[in-house]
Every structure is written in structure tokens, then in C-alpha cells.
Amino acid sequence: MSTSQWTRLAWGVLWLFAALRPFSVHAANYPKTETPHAGTLAYRLEQGVKVFELTAEPVKREMASGLVIKGWGYNGQTPGPTIEANEGDRIRVLLTNHLPEATSIHFHGVLLPSGMDGVSGLNQPRIEPGETYAYEFLLKQHGTQMYHPHADETTQMALGMMGLFVIHPKQEPRRIDRDFAFFLQEWDVTPGASKPNPITMTDFNLFSFNGRVYPHLDPLVVKRGERVRIRFANLTMDSHPIHVHGVSFVQTGTDGGPTPLSAQFPETTINVLPGSTRDFEFIAHTSGDWAMHCHKSHHTMNQMGHDVPNMIGVDQTQDTEAVQKILPEYMAMGSDGMDDMASMHMPGPVNTVPMMSGTGPFGPIGMGGMFLVIKVRDEIDNSSATSWYKSPPTEQAHRVRSGANAQQKSGR
Amino acid sequence: MWHEAYRYARIGPMKKSVYLTFVLGVLLCAGGPSCAHVHSDGSFVVEREIVEERTGFALGAAADAAEGSDALSPLPTAALSEPLGVDDFLKLVLLNNPRLLATFAELGIERSEVVRAGILRNPTLSGSVGFPLGALGAPSLGLGFVQSLLDVFVRPMRLRLAQCGYAQAQSRIIQTVLNMTLEAQEAFFQLQASQELLLLQHTVKDATHVATRLKCKQWQAGNIAELEYRQQQALDEQMQLDLDVAQASLIKEREGCNVLMGLWSSDVHRWTIKRPDVLPKQGALASEDYESIAVLRRLDLEAARQKLQLAQQALHYAKTMRFIGEIDVGISASRDSEGPRLLGPSLSLELPLFNRRQPLIARLEAEMRQARLLVQATAIEIRSEVRQAAYNVQVTRAIAERNADKLVPIRHQIVSLSQLYYNNMLLGMYPLVANKQAEIMARRQSIEAMRNYWVSQARLERALGGRRPYATEEQP
Hints:
The complex is a heterodimer.
Chain A: H1 3-20, E1 43-46, E2 49-64, E3 67-74, E4 80-86, E5 90-97, E6 106-108, E7 132-138, E8 143-148, H2 153-158, E9 163-168, E10 178-187, E11 206-209, E12 220-223, E13 227-234, E14 240-244, E15 249-254, E16 257-258, E17 266-267, E18 269-272, E19 276-283, E20 288-294, H3 317-326, H4 340-343, E21 357-360, E22 363-367, E23 371-377
Chain B: H1 2-9, H2 16-30, H3 45-55, H4 86-96, H5 98-117, E1 124-130, E2 140-148, H6 149-220, H7 226-261, H8 267-270, H9 290-297, H10 299-320, E3 327-335, E4 341-349, H11 358-423, H12 429-463
Antiparallel strand pairs in B: 1-2, 2-3, 3-4
Helix pairs in contact in B: 1-2, 2-6, 3-6, 4-6, 5-6, 6-7, 6-10, 6-12, 9-11, 10-11, 11-12
């Protein structure tokens, strides 16, 4: 072969190599993890060790516009910022305690030496207020892990102390285009108050993704055809069956490690158990606006009164006037369900958001809590996050017949 | 007067000394403590003025016998057309309550005693005829005319004592009128509060009734069990019963006010009471020496003092007249059957040898000691009553203010907050209504506290001897 042929061959081989080479910011075939509303913890390199600094402290968290809670967290937020590192990294976490009581930090699911496991009293002394402790270990795995306290956990976790710990592999078995991570949280915050009650065992009233509730959760905007991975972590008292509309997905990992291909079966709902993480992946093959939410219906409501009387099917029309004589602002509610809340915008107590709200292109959505929208678009631009999908007419549900009593509901 | 004494006592030439003794005696009797002067024209102007000054209102004409009317005047048409405040009510009570006016009219009875005391004893005319039995002859005739001379001298003393007695009765009777006025004030405030409380009770009952109707519908729709509905229903029925009882009580209180205003026939239904106003800003009269004011103004204490004066005066007169007995002077004419016709003066003197008014003096001394002690006792009781009344005004005022300025606004705020929670479906309809009912109950308590304050004000007024001009105080 001539020199020019060899040159062309070399360039061709190089081009082939570049084309086939896995793509990623980290020179791998996956992107950085996006933790909406929480972000990633920056690190510094010290002699090849990634050093992460965390401060455990009381925090204020805006869960929604008009709802701020006073919890405990890391680096001014709950959940804490995501620690993101790679398998094979040596990392050092410096934890400073600015809480009014002792704490520690445990790296959930991470394979590390016993002395770094962070169970106060067992693996280490408690970290007293004002102290800083150092944890250092080599990452020998990849997957979605968590960090959380292991001193007075009932209080500290109930007040919001937790964060994601994502360990990337050198290479993903399949190329990932988008990677999102969410921490599931449950709270009991009395409407009108702002401090979560750590004593509550079962009767929670706020359910959040990364410390935010719908309709104050940003949509996930992905391009049609992208492979999307979503990670969920759960340190609440309940399991959360997370359901995604419009796709079927497969579970690809837990906090125990990657799920073998042979064990991956299609699902539309994945149950994230307390004390575990779940990763799943899907191809966003159909453009549109797709809901993703916990399928426990109370978990897609914001603060709700559990002692409200059951008025379903009770005609209150004749009684409303009588009540208004002593309570002029009174309006009958509940005769036809709770949908009144979705559309009415009546003033409520301070630091409280309506039980269900949110507006879409066709009217009130009437959701809250663990609910957000995945927007799959053919092309992504600056307006994608705020615009709504416009279905072609043949793919749009539409009215074919009006009900004669469509506007007449019982009790009105 | 002493001229009359001179004329009656003159039997021939009188020694100057004797005459002077009589004059001196009269003057002595004229001395001693003096009492109130009674109008001789029969009117009760002074007494009316006292009542008006102490109550702020004029007595009805029917109380005054001198004006000749013994029937109640018809009420002016406009008197009952507007809702009555306490002043309007008291005005009508003093104008028209026959029992109160009858009490005042007792002054006429007391005054008659004064008139009686000022009248001299009537002279006595006596005559006799003697027919001779057996012997012949003309019948004998005798004629005599006698006047008590002592009565002339003691009349001024007697009159003074009667005037003292009248003054005491005057104080006592006016005090009774003031007491009746206080009772009327209390009855007014009670009725005014009861009316308002009943209105609020109706509202509470209506709210419970609505909740009951909804619970019934919930039960019929299968949303709650019958037990829950029946519990609500029992509450509803009990509230209705309480309302019926309160209504009956209100009728009774209203009738009491009808009687106080002296109303009958269609007038009993014609009047209404003003709704209570808010508490006035200026408060009680904390800096005054109420006890001193009370001991000066209280008519029952005055009556006790006057009784002591009466006893002192009577004792003085009794001691002065202790050595003077009955003196009767007169003229007699006679003719016997054989003798000449005779005409001449007569004189009868009682000699105070055994009875020198010792029992009377002893009795009067004992009465005087008793009266002195009763003045003290009355003063002590009045002072205590005033202290207690003044304290009650402060306490009831503080309670009324705390109810109106703190509790009721907080309850109202609870309702406002509850409405916000209800709007967000965080609170059900029943606790919302219950919180409103709690607000209404706080308002009821506030009304009762106000009533207690006004009543304690009225009692302080009475304890201080009747209404005084309070420059800054407003009345409901």
C-alpha cells in the first residue's frame, strides 16, 4: 500500500475507533448525574484523593412556593448535595457537625472498612457539635448509594438528613444519555407550622422528590430516543411504588449493585423499599408529556386533613346558606369528592400549599407531592421546559357527546 | 306664741318673776337641737328635689298629694316608641311605678304627725245641773271653761320633736325609694343582657341544627354510623330545650320590668330595650375617698343620726320639763239654789312629787345610747358596703375588659384561621362550626361580664347615696 493509502487507513481506523469509543464527559458512555433541586457536591483533589466537605446543620428548605420547612440537612439543604465519584476513586469525606446534638455519617451500601461505616458507638465515637470527622476509603463498586446519619436517626432522618452517593463505573454496559437521581422523603409538618415532627411513625402529610413537592417540581426534559436512567433512594417509613407513564422500563440496579440482564424484566412501576435504592432505564421513544409519580394516591397530595368528614353524596345546598349566616366565607365542599381543591384558589393557612393543584394545558391537574412530568420532545430548546406537548388531532382524546347533566353535580 | 301664753296665764296681776319664768321656760323649750323645717303648704318640693338629685329623674305627679292627683298620669305617647336605655327606663319607673310612688306618698302620713304636733289641745267646756231632791228650791247650775296652759308651752317642743321625727322618716323613705331605683336598674341590666344572650343562644342553636341536618344526611348516605348521628341529635335537642327555658326566663324578666314601669294593657308589649353598647373607655373612679363620700351622703345613716338627734332632743326636753306638771287654767260660773251666782277663774296644777318623768328620762337615755350605737353600726356597714362595691366595680370592669379585648378577639381569630384550614380541606365543617360556636359563647360571657359591671356600678352609686355627676362616665 502506498503512503497515502496507509495514511487513509490510519485515519479510517482512528475515525472508527472514535466512533465506536464510548462517549461521556468522563470519557465514559454516561453523563453526569443530575439531581434536580439538590445538585452535586463539589470536591477538591488532594494528592489524588477526592475530598468532599459536608456540614451537618439546621436548614430551611423551600418545598414549594409558600411552604418552607425548618429541618436538618447538609450544606444548607435537604436532601444534601449528591456525592458523585467513580469506581476506583479514593475519597475522603469531612463531616463537620453544626447540629445541636451529636451525629455521624454512614455510607449506605458502600463496601468499606468497618471503622468507616459510621454507626456511632459501634464503629466510631459520636461526632459532637463543633467537631469534624474524616472518613476515607477506596470505592470498590458502582451504583446508587446513600449517606445518612447513624446517631439519633429517627430524629435526624425525619428532619431531612440524607443525600445521594452515586458511584459511576468505568463503563456502562449500555450508553446512557440522561441520568436523574431523586431522594424520596416523607414529612409530617402541621399545616401552618414549619418544623417536621420526628415522632410521627405513619401519618405523614408531605411527600417529596429531592425536598420539593408538585407543582413545584421542575419537569424532566429529554429528547425522543434518549436512554434515560432514573435513580430513586428511599429512607422513609414507607415503600413508594414509582410509576412512569408512557413507557415500560427495566430495573438496572439497586444499592446492592447492578441488576443482571437476565433478571431485568419490564415494568411500569417499581417499588422502592425503605432503606434501598432502585435504578431503572427506558428509552423515551414517544414524544409527549408523561407523568411520573408514586402510585400511593395519598403520596401525590400535599397536606391533607385526615379527620375531615366524609361528605361524598351528601347534598349540602340547602344547608350552605344556614352556615353562611354565621360563617360568611363558608362554601360547601366534598360532596363530589376533593376535586374542588384542584380548581378553587381559596386562601389557606400560612406556610401551607393546597392539597392538590397544578395546571396543565387542559385545565387543573389536581396533584401534589411525589409527582412530576417528563417532557419528551423531538428537539429540545429553551422553551421545552415550560411548553406543553401538542398532540396531533388524531392522537388527542376529545369529546364526542355532551352529558345533559354534565354541569349538574350533587350538592351544587 | 309667747303672747298667747301671757294672755292665758294672766290671772290677776302676775308677778313679773312668774311671768318671766314662763317666758324663760318657753325659750328653753325653744332651744336645743333643731330639725328640718317642714313646708306648711303641703308640697314635697324639697323631698322631690332630693330624689331628683340622687336619681337624676323626677318623681311622678301622683306621689304628691298636694297636687291633688291620686291617679297615674297617662304616659306620653313617645315614651315607649324608641328602644329604652337605662335612663329612659329609670325615668319611667320614677314617673309611673305606683308602688314606688306609694312609698314616697308615705311622707304625707309622716307629715300629718308634724301638723298634729303643732296644734294646741282643745279647751274643755263643762257644765252641770243639780236638781234638789226632796227640798224645794231652784236647781243649781255650773259652767266651766278650761284650757291646758302647759300645752301652750310644750307645743314648740313637741313641734320640734315632730319635725325631727319627720326628718328621720324623710331620710328613711327617700332611701327606700333609692333602693327601689337600684332594683330597677339591676332588673334593666339583667333583661338587657338576657335579651342579647338569647339572640346569641339562637345562633348557637341554629349552627348545631345545621350540623345535625348534615350528620343525618351523612348517615342516610351511609357515610357515618347511626350512633354518631344520634349523639349529634341529642345535642341538638338539648340545645332546643335550653333555648325554651331561656325564653321563658326572659318573659319573666320582661314582666318584672313591666311591673317596675307600672305598665298595663297594650303598653306591656309596646316597648323594647336598647341593645347593650360597648364598654366605655373611661373606667372606675379609683382615686376618690368613697367612704367619706358615703358617710356624708347616705340617707340611711342620716336617718340613724336623726334618730339619735331626736332621742337627744326628747331627753333634753324631758329633763327640762321634769319639775313642771300639768297646768290648767279656766273660768267657771255657777249658781246654786239658794246662793248668789258666782263667776271666777280656775287654776289646776299637777304637783310633780312622785312622777318627775323618771321613766321617760330613763327610756330616752336608753334610746339615745342605742341610737348612738346604731349610728356607729350603720356607718361601719356602709363603709364596708362602699369598699366592697368599689372593689367589685374594679374587678367586674377588669373581667369585662379582658373578655371584650382579649378573649373574644382571640376566639374570632381562631374562627378566621379555622376558615383558612377549612378552605384547604384540612379541617372539617363540624370543627369549623364548633369553633364559631365557641366564639359566640365567648361573646355571651362578655355580655354577662358587661352586665355584671353595670350592676356593680349601680350598686356603687347606691352605696354612695345615689347618683353623682360622673363627668366622664357613659351609661349604657
